[in-house]
Every structure is written in C-alpha cells, then in structure tokens.
Amino acid sequence: MALLENRPFDDLAIGDSATLSRTLSPREIKLYAVMSGDINPAHLDPAYAEQTRFEGVVGHGMWLGALVSNLIGTRLPGPGTVYLSQDLHFLAPVKPGDTVEVRVEVAEKQANRRVVLRCECRNQTGLAVAEGSAVVIAPAEKMHREAPELPDIEFRDHAGYDRLIRAAKSYPTLPIALVHPCSAVVLEGALQAAAEDLMRPVLVGPAERIRKIADGAHLDISSLQIIDTAHSHASAERAAALARDGEVATLMKGSLHTDEFLRAVIAREAGLRTDRRMSHIYLVSSPDYPKPLMVTDCAINVAPDLATKVDICQNAIDFAHGLGIGEPKVAILAAVEKVNLHMQATLDAAALCKMADRRQIKGGVLDGPLAFDNAIDPEAARIKGLPDKVAGQPDILLVPDLEAGNILVKQMTFMSDDDAAGLVLGARVPLILTSRADSLRTRLASVALAVVACHMRPRKGDGDH
C-alpha cells in the first residue's frame, strides 16, 4: 500500500515545495463534467469548440484547481491540512494531451498554523497556464496513513452517436431496402429505425417466412412494405435493382452472407459500380477519444495493394467531408513509424503520403507509417518526435489489411466498450453491413451513417468499370 505522509506546521520552512504531473485526457474532461455537472460545450462539443477563440476542446479551468487541491491535501502540507481559500488566475488553455506540472511552495507562515502557499501550473512547453495562492491551516502533528484505494470507474458515452442520429433525422426520411430480413433481430431494428424516423424500411425477401418470424417475435410489421422473393440470391438481386432504379436510397444486409450480398451489388448488370473500389468504414464512438474516429478497411478488401489503398483512403476522406470534417487527418497504420524495406505496410504508407503531396489523393492530410500508439496518443507521438499534423489527433485510421482492422475494431468494441457503426463506400449507393452481434443502438447508428452518406453531394468522375 502507498503511504501518505504530511508536513506539520513546525516542520515547514519558507521555500519548501512539492510538485505533481498530470496529462489531460478526453476521458478526464468527461469525468470532470460528470462529477461537476459543468457541460459547457467548449469542453465537450468539438464542433462548437472549433469556433471558439481556442480553436478546439479545452479542459475545465477548475481541473487545475483540483490538481492544486490534490497536491496540498496529499503532499504539502498533506493529510490534516484545512483548506481556507484559493486564489487562482487562469492564463492559458489546457487541451487534451497537454501535460501539466503543478507546483506549490511555502511562501509565508502565520499565526495559528496558517500557511500561504504559492501555486503555479505549467504545461509541457513550460508555459504558465495558471498561478495564484492558497491559504491553509497546516497540521499540528506528524501523520502517516495508508493511501485509500480508489475504485475503477467506467462509463459509456453515446454523445457522438446521438449527434449523428440527430443529424440524420434532419434529412427527409428515405426508403431503405432490407435484404433478406429473415430474423427477429433484423426486423426489430427495422421497426425501431422506422419509429425513430430514420428510414422507411422496404423488406425484400420471402414474404411468408418474414411474416412468420415477425409473428413469432410479436413484432407488428403490417405497416412495412414487403417485396416477395424466393430465396436469398433473389433477394439480393432484386434489392440491387431497386437501388439502381432509384426506388430505394440504399441497401441494408439482413440474414444472408456478406459475400452473397456484395456479389449482387458488384454484378455489372446491377449498375451500382463506380470507378472506385468499394471499401468498408467503421465510425467509432469512444469515451477515450475527443472526436469521431473512422477505421478503414475492416470488412471488404482482405489484403489491399497500393492502388486499392488509394481508393480506400479517398473513400474515407470523401465520407469525412460529408460528416462536416473539412480536411480530415489520416493516420496510415503499420507496426512501426519508420519506413522498413521488409514491411510492405510501411512502403505503402510512404507512397500514399507522397501521392497526397502530388494531389493524387485529395481533401485530407496524410501521415504514415504510424504505429497505433503514436497515431492515437499525443504523448506517444511527442516522445517519438513525430510532427503533430496527424499523429495524436487523426480522424481516420487506415489499417494495413482487413485482419488488422477487424481485430482492432473488435478489440475496441468488445474490450473497451466503444461503439462502432459500419458502412460500405464506393458504390453508387452506400451499403449497410451489420453483424448479428451488433446492438440495436449500433444498427441505428449504421442507418444514420447511410442517411448522411445518401445526402452527400455525388463525386465527380464516377463511372462504371
């Protein structure tokens, strides 16, 4: 057990000091907001914060005050101290990823064990972000105490998905074909999405079987349109034709295999192919990251070559524009952050960055190769001496292959409690791929993603293969 030890009044001398260091994370910002109730959008809403004088999310000022209190209550003078007053002036913002060193120094000893402490907070560059003084009553006697153990705290934050769903609801409700929806889970999701005014479901599949499944699950689908087909192959082909003819805005996979679903879409006669390779993108909502994070490609292209990665990257950048991200930052992942002639992912990353320099990839800022830690964590990027144009703050993670991406996203969702809604890009309509393990909330978010994609301006130069 760690021990807490104080400094009684008689042991204190002018100039005695103590310090602590703490890095501000997005999680700490949200945790402070939960604790205090301070939900100022400057701390919690990246879109709003970008328009403020600080041009991004900043931490709560009193987070610094809490660190000063921490240092006084545990170190100098420590346990037994009575806090009387705090005078703190805020000089500069603290942003996610900033590391703050807090220092308190004995400035004056007064009667009745009163002590004036000089307080200052500096960030990792040495810039003073806050300074002031505190007045306390120092303890009279020496004390050693075991430090209390704090509980682990977990919370789930769906604010990102809430904003996405609200944005989708601002558009006119679109007809969306559910391809072979022969399970209660799929039908329940369709009904919920309809109730939320996210879509008008069109069920494409064997009508009698669909009705039996709905009856067995006590689901009322009487208000939903059903287009009868004989089997899953026919369902996929009929749904693709509906999308081609403009009768539905997009397609959502139901109870059929992904390969079978996509085969109908990429068939030449379906008329849904473009001059881009199709790719999958996950939009991840994480309480530990301050903004939406896209991960691609985790479901379509198994071992993409450089040409395929160009399309994957451009698809993701175009989609980020549709989400309102003007110049998305793309981190190209590999196992290391240096080009290694024996690691193809690093060579591809270097080539992609140079292609972006030559405007062969447009609309985003690319950097790579980047290992996951220095791609996603500002402190890890700083330690490695990486430029901060992308490292530590990406909007998009471009993974080296499907296996790496699939494992990464499943780790994020199953072990870190993040949410991940997915979409297939690169066809003439967005395609919704859902898993049987997806929650209802994730299914709704995937539909919302598709709605946003449907209302994006079409790319110039799209053409058939």
In terms of DSSP E residues, the strand content is 15-25%
Biggest sheet strand line-up: 15-14-16-13-12-17
Q: Runs with pLDDT <50, length 5+?
A: 459-465
Mean pLDDT: 90
Radius of gyration: 27 Å
Based on DSSP secondary structure assignment, what is the total number of beta strands? 18
CATH architecture of the largest domain: 3-Layer(aba) Sandwich
CATH class of the largest domain: Alpha Beta
Q: What is the molecular shape? A: elongated
SSE-based structural type: alpha/beta
What percent of residues adopt helix (DSSP H or I)?
Answer: 25-40%
Q: What is the CATH H-level superfamily of the largest domain?
A: Isopropylmalate Dehydrogenase
Number of helical regions? 15
Secondary structure layout plus pairing:
Layout: E1 3-5, E2 17-23, H1 26-36, H2 41-44, H3 46-49, H4 61-74, E3 82-90, E4 99-109, E5 114-122, E6 128-137, E7 144-146, H5 159-169, E8 174-179, H6 184-195, E9 199-205, H7 207-216, E10 225-228, H8 232-244, E11 250-253, H9 258-266, E12 279-285, E13 293-296, H10 306-322, E14 329-333, H11 344-357, E15 365-370, H12 372-376, H13 378-383, E16 396-398, H14 402-414, E17 419-425, E18 431-432, H15 440-454
Parallel strand pairs: 8-9, 8-11, 9-10, 11-18, 13-16, 14-15, 14-16
Antiparallel strand pairs: 1-7, 2-4, 3-6, 4-5, 5-6, 12-13, 12-17
